[in-house]
Design a protein that fits this description.
Blueprint lengths: L4 H6 L16 E6 L2 E9 L2 E5 L5 H18 L1
Antiparallel strand pairs: 1-2, 2-3
């Protein structure tokens, strides 16, 4: 959630998650880096990402790393 959420996910997901293409309520099963996940847009700058429980910590690590790279560019 938050400003830059699309930019962060753009580093991890091979989908066009911009609001014009991926509207609120849309869901896709896709790869998040090397993990299978369900990605759902739940708001203008909010996404719900579900992975297998065993991959939860890995997902958090990947999201933090991508967010740091996006912040460094800004």
């Amino acid at each position: 959630t938050g400003e830059g959420a699309e930019a962060v996910l753009a580093r991890l997901v091979p989908l066009d998650l911009r609001i014009a293409s991926f509207k609120k309520g849309h869901t896709a099963r896709t790869m998040v880096n090397h993990m299978m996940a369900n990605v759902t847009r739940i708001g203008p700058d909010s996404f719900e990402i579900m992975v297998m429980r065993s991959m939860g910590q890995t997902l958090l690590h990947e999201l933090r790393e991508a967010a740091e790279h996006v912040a460094a560019r800004g």
